[in-house]
Specification:
The chain folds into 2 domains: about 10-45 and about 60-265, Thrombin, subunit H, CATH 2.40.10.120; about 275-465, no CATH class. The chain is about 15% helix and about 35% strand. The protein is built from 6 helices and 25 strands. The chain has a 7-stranded antiparallel beta sheet, sandwiched between helices. Helix 4 runs parallel beside helix 6. The longest helix has 22 residues, at about 270-295. The protein starts with 10 loop residues before the first strand and ends with a strand.
Length: about 475
């Protein structure tokens, strides 16, 4: 089977560093190096880069008075979050954050502080204000599923910290309202980007706000404000295959994190246990919802082939008729946009695909060779050996409602996320000599019982079309 996805959601996190982190939540995917978001959103920047000698000055986009006002009111509450090597001044990544209490509590993204959370023996965190003041910061609590972290300033301010207020949940935003995203893009200075509120993202497993504006690397964890200067969301990710398509974590999750973690003791040990506990909650909810949603009807003229309902996944189809009278191919790919960022990789997603082969013009022998080769070319290793064990696979020939199938089930255990596994199931129908269907099911970050449950659910969906 051809294992690449023809159309995939391309999401990147907005922190900067050698290894960058998105449910997003949409979960942000890993990226390397800073990359400016494309688009024509209007941006006010505190520390613009000077043009090269001899170059003409760029013509600035018009900036609204509302954007200027929002930025000036929020400037003192904004911070840059830097991850630095312990005992050294060198930074390894940067993101943004904002004060949410007079006691010095700060909200940012989990992926902004993940190095310090998972490897505290090697990394420290500091915050830097818009006027250049720098001080240490501690992690109090994490919400990995929504890519949030609650921090607290480690210094004692001469007066209470100036905090941004949250917009009341009862005051619902209308589609098209102006909102303003703030942060430190590309580590060049604090800035505000003006855009629009476009409701919640469709098919996201966890709620995310669709922000019609351009976000850049380094803005992760910064606030998105309404025209009154109240927090409505937290910057988290952007699409790299489109312009002004960005995503925010709804402010309600940040409010809940502050409420539960305000008085928590700082996290000093590696947070793998916390991450694992939250992933266990995620995989339980994901398994329940996936099984409950069922399958689409009439997915193949001869067989029942499992294709999920488009509640939190999206499916794409394609057709490749042979140009030389050989093997005709039809394909379906179904993927989740949501990925859970857990440090050096993402997990917590489900994907399915199937390919329908028609090779009557090849003859039985040539078709069998091509069909078997397609089944054998699948890989079951997703992460490097430092993160996961080798695949443990079992192959068998089974019947599902009288339909003969060849099936392979593989599990890989996570080395630092105890009792969590990646599951892969590969299936091929065997009832025809010159035609058939091959399918693959992948689910990441499952408990062993739920891996068994989803494997049985997927295999049980095959059968004869009625």
């Amino acid at each position: 089977m051809n294992s690449h996805l023809r159309r995939a959601t391309l999401l990147v996190a907005l922190s900067l560093g050698p290894t960058l982190g998105a449910s997003g939540q949409t979960t942000p995917t890993a990226a390397s190096g800073p990359a400016a978001a494309q688009g024509a959103a209007r941006t006010v920047t505190e520390a613009p880069v000077a043009p090269e000698a001899g170059a003409s000055a760029p013509v600035a986009a018009p900036i609204s008075l509302s954007a200027r006002k929002v930025y000036e009111q929020a400037r003192s509450q904004l911070v840059q979050i830097r991850t630095v090597l312990k005992g050294r001044a060198s930074q390894t990544s940067v993101g943004s954050g904002f004060f949410v209490s007079a006691q010095g509590h700060i909200i940012t993204n989990f992926h902004v502080v993940s190095e310090a959370a998972l490897k505290p023996e090697r990394h420290d965190l500091v915050y830097v204000t818009a006027d250049g003041r720098e001080a240490p910061v501690q992690i109090l609590q994490l919400d990995v599923l929504h890519d949030l972290a609650l921090l607290k300033a480690g210094d004692v301010a001469p007066k209470p910290f100036d905090a941004l207020p949250f917009r009341a949940e009862a005051r619902v935003l209308a589609q098209g309202e102006r909102i303003y995203s703030l942060g430190n893009p590309l580590d060049v200075g604090f800035a505000v980007t003006e855009g629009t509120y476009n409701g919640l993202v469709r098919r996201s497993f966890y709620p995310q706000i669709f922000f019609g504006g351009a976000l850049s690397g380094g803005m992760s964890g910064g606030p998105a404000l309404d025209e009154a200067g109240q927090v409505i969301g937290v910057n988290v990710a952007r699409r790299v295959d489109g312009e002004q398509v960005s995503f925010l974590v709804p402010a309600s999750f940040a409010m809940a994190l502050l409420a539960t973690g305000r008085n928590a003791a700082p996290i000093s040990a590696p947070a793998y246990g916390i991450v694992t506990d939250q992933l266990m909650q995620h995989q339980a909810a994901l398994t329940t919802r996936f099984v409950a949603q069922g399958w689409k009807p009439a997915t193949h003229p001869r067989y029942k082939v499992p294709v999920p309902i488009d509640t939190f996944m999206r499916c794409w189809g394609s057709s490749e008729p042979s140009r030389t009278g050989g093997l005709d191919l039809e394909r379906s790919d179904c993927v989740m946009d949501t990925r859970i960022f857990v440090g050096d990789y993402t997990t917590g997603a489900i994907s399915l695909r199937h390919e329908s082969y028609e090779g009557g013009k090849l003859g039985a022998m040539r078709f069998a060779a091509r069909y078997a080769a397609s089944f054998r070319n699948e890989a079951f290793t997703r992460l490097r050996a430092e993160y996961q064990t080798k695949p443990q696979c079992h192959e068998d020939y089974v019947e599902q409602g009288g339909l003969p199938l060849r099936a392979v089930v593989c599990l890989r255990a996570y080395k630092k996320l105890s009792q969590l596994y990646d599951l892969s199931v590969l299936v091929a129908t065997l009832d025809q000599s010159t035609a058939g269907v091959q399918g693959r099911f992948d689910a990441q970050g499952l408990s062993f019982p739920n891996a068994q449950k989803l494997a049985a659910h997927y295999l049980g969906a095959y059968g004869w079309a009625r």
